[in-house]
């Protein structure tokens, strides 16, 4: 297991900031192609609650997002300017006209100090045109594809209405490895999904590790993002919570799961995230997820033990 900051430092040789952008996509799980209503936890903004306005041109979104980063780090001792990774985060950022989407990725990469590209998507939304366009980009730039998986338990997958299967995920990882071994794949998992046991959760971690390692060269790495499920307003999960049919993990339960999950990660696994960042204005529960400072300090302790 490797720290994200060390990984990005080794790739870019400088401090790196991820900036959230919106390619204007929707999701096949919302527009009726695969499903309607989305995953039961997904907010109306499609997991990109921090991205700059979707109606703005990409160049403008990049400038706004860079300004936001600079306003946060300005005056902080030890912080310095660096490079940016353009992160297309909202909904399914490979779902749409391939030419238009590739144009947006290139536009972001042409902006000053943008050194890499990250694209969040679903495993069933990587058609050959998009994938070959991303493979071409990866010849000259760092490219990261983030795949939602959330769980390897198919029953839970159906319950949360994700509308894709483990096979879709296995296929997507294999196709990315084949198209461009340099592309860094990051898989998203959620702990605390309804009805999941500790064994389900640890099995999901084992599954991601085993699929990610298959086809990787020995020097290559893969990434993982883990978060505890949180409940946002106006989602089916919120209705379940209000009806007393779902309780989120406590901080202690989440940390205890992480303590068991982290030792399952091999040395070439980059841990991109272990905490969610729910928008406070939409968050219903659990409240502990907003206490970022304390969580990050506690996570540091966990990472040192693993
Ligand atoms: S696949 Fe992603 S964007 Fe689509 S509904 Fe599920 S969480 Fe939201």
From TrEMBL:
Record's keyword annotation contains Ion transport: no
UniProt entry keywords in alphabetical sequence: 4Fe-4S, Iron, Iron-sulfur, Metal-binding, S-adenosyl-L-methionine
Taxonomic superkingdom: Bacteria
UniProt cross-references to Pfam families, sorted A to Z: Radical_SAM (PF04055), Radical_SAM_C (PF16199)
Residues annotated as domain Radical SAM core: 11-267
Signal peptide start and end residues: none
Cofactor(s), names only, from the UniProt record: [4Fe-4S] cluster
InterPro entries recorded: ELP3 (IPR039661), Elp3/MiaA/NifB-like_rSAM (IPR006638), Radical_SAM_C (IPR032432), rSAM (IPR007197), rSAM_horseshoe (IPR023404), rSAM_sf (IPR058240), YhcC-like (IPR005911)
GO molecular function: 4 iron, 4 sulfur cluster binding; catalytic activity; metal ion binding
PANTHER family tied to this protein: HISTONE ACETYLTRANSFERASE-RELATED, PROTEIN YHCC
Name of the protein in its database record: Radical SAM core domain-containing protein
Species of origin: Treponema bryantii
């Amino acid at each position: 297991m490797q720290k994200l900051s060390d990984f990005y430092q080794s790739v870019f040789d400088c401090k790196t900031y991820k900036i959230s952008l919106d390619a204007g996509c929707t999701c096949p799980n919302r527009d009726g192609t695969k499903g309607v209503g989305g995953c039961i936890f997904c907010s109306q903004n499609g997991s990109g609650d921090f991205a700059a306005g979707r109606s703005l041109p990409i160049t403008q979104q990049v400038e706004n997002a860079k300004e936001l980063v600079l306003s946060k780090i300005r005056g902080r001792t030890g912080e310095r300017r660096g490079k940016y990774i353009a992160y297309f985060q909202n909904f399914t950022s490979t779902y749409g006209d391939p030419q238009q989407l590739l144009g947006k990725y290139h536009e972001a990469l042409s902006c000053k100090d943008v050194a890499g590209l990250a694209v969040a998507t679903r495993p069933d939304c990587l058609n050959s045109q998009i994938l070959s366009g991303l493979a071409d980009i990866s010849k000259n730039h760092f490219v990261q594809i983030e795949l939602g998986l959330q769980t390897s338990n198919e029953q839970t997958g159906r319950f949360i209405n994700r509308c894709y299967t483990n096979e879709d995920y296995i296929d997507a990882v294999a196709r990315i490895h084949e198209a461009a071994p340099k592309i860094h794949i990051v898989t998203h998992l959620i702990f605390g999904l309804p009805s999941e046991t500790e064994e389900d959760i640890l099995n999901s971690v084992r599954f991601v590790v085993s699929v990610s390692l298959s086809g990787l060269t020995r020097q290559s790495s893969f990434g993982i993002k883990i978060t505890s499920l949180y409940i946002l307003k106006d989602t089916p999960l919120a209705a379940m919570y209000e009806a007393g049919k779902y309780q989120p993990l406590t901080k202690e339960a989440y940390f205890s799961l992480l303590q068991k999950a982290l030792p399952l990660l091999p040395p070439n696994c980059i841990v991109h995230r272990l905490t969610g960042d729910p928008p406070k204005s939409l968050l219903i529960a659990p409240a502990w997820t907003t206490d970022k400072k304390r969580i990050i300090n506690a996570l540091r302790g966990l990472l040192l033990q693993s």
